[in-house]
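The methods section describes the discrete structure representation at length, but only in general terms. What matters is that the chain and its backbone geometry are given together, residue for residue. Nothing conveys this as quickly as seeing an actual entry. For illustration, here is how one protein appears when written out as sequence plus structure tokens:
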Amino acid sequence: TNGGDIESQQHRRSASGGHHPKHHPIPTGITITDGPHGLRKTLGEDLLEDRIPATCFPTASALASSWDVNLLHKVGVTLAQECVAADVGVLLGPGMNIKRHPCCGRNFEYFSE
């Protein structure tokens, strides 16, 4: 491709997180959406009003602090069920990371040491 056609533009936008936090249907038909504490998927342009209902779980750092492997498994199963129900192929979260600095504004989103 020449890099300027629509499909190439969609690939670049999807790979770069182009229009965060909206979900991105990419050309392969896989829907990717964000949501470190649960599924977040919008149905239209209004990011605050036009969303599907979803469970909001405690933050990853709070869940990890419980040391309850069974609880984390149940959260993972529930996230998977919500993704299947909403036709989402990839959920960008929860995540795992080493927290290198306490001032990082995203630390609450990660399971960590």
Summary: The first helix runs from residue 6 to 16.
